[in-house]
Amino acid sequence: DLWHANDATIIEFTENGVSVPYIFVAAYSDKKINSIVKLRFNSLGEYWETARYNFPEGFEFVSIACISNARNESAVFLIKSGNNFHTVTIPNNLSSGTTLTPSLKFSIKTVDGFSSQGTHYDLSSDTLYIAFSSKTNFNENCIKSYTGILNASGTIPSSSTWTIKKGENTDLRFEVEGIGFRPNSDDDKLWF
Questions:
Q1: How far is CA 95 from CA 54, 90, 155, in A?
Q2: Which of 51, 142, 130 has the alpha carbon at shortest distance from 90?
Q3: In the prediction, which pLDDT does 148 show?
Q4: Bridge partners of 114?
Q5: Which helix (H) or strand (E) holds 7?
Q6: 150: helix, coil or strand?
Q7: In angstroms, what CA-CA distances link 28 with 14, 16, 54, 57, 61?
Q8: Are 127 and 145 in contact (CB under 8 A)?
Q9: Which of 95, 160, 164, 166 supports an S-S bond with 141, CB 3.0-4.6 Å?
Q10: 98, 79, 97: which is closest to 88 by C-alpha?
Q11: Cβ-proximal residues to 167 (8 Å cutoff; 6+ apart), any chain
Q12: Which has more pLDDT, 60 or 51?
């Protein structure tokens, strides 16, 4: 059970000489029980849970991004909790049920009138992208980028902002919750 799956990232580990993909999902049930769920998947689109790692009770987070992947050993994840970003390392062979210990890395300033959503980290440019949705205009979203993440500390400023608005011809809500770029591709479009 993934409960409320708010964000995800795909990681590949090398196991017995073969690249094996996993999806790591930021999941919570009532914001008191928060976990990272490790899912294995195959080319048929089937997936299954292989492990669940917990955070200390009361540690709330909503997004996950991988910032380092030592393919056959471990991955370092960037976990967003409010305006704070923490790191947590998950070895490939970490036992399910293990309680994780997040370490504070840096913070961002609040974006007035907006709620933060999903994240995407681009290793090649050391840039973190964060989606924000308006609290009052359900058709307005913005994406902010933050550079120099691997060495970041304290409160860091954004380096650029993009606004995404839905056309005015419909009453349907348009909320950007997750973002990303295609890995290993010449496609430089932002996907959401």
A1: 11, 10, 34
A2: 51
A3: 92
A4: 134
A5: strand 4-15
A6: helix
A7: 28, 32, 10, 11, 8
A8: yes
A9: 164
A10: 79
A11: none
A12: 51
Say whether pLDDT at 70 is over 60: no
Looking at residue 2, the DSSP 8-state letter turns out to be -
Over the stretch 29-54, which tens digit does the pLDDT of each residue have? Answer: 665 678 889 999 888 989 999 999 98
What's the token pair of residue 71? 């393919």
**pLDDT tens, 155-175?**
999 888 888 777 666 666 777
Residue 54 CA to residue 36 CA, distance in Å, equals: 6
DSSP letter at 42? -
User: Is the sign of the CA dihedral 133, 135, 140, 142 positive or negative?
Assistant: negative
Amino acid, res. 152: A
- Residue-wise DSSP of 104-133: EEEEE---TTEEEEEEEEETTTTEEEEEEE
Token match 């992947």: residue? 69
In this structure, the dihedral spanned by the alpha carbons of residues 65, 149, 191 and 175, taken in order and rounded to 10 degrees, is: 80
Q: Is pLDDT above 80 for 20?
A: yes
Question: pTM to 2 decimals?
Answer: 0.82
More confident position, 4 or 155: 155
Give the pLDDT of residue 73: 79
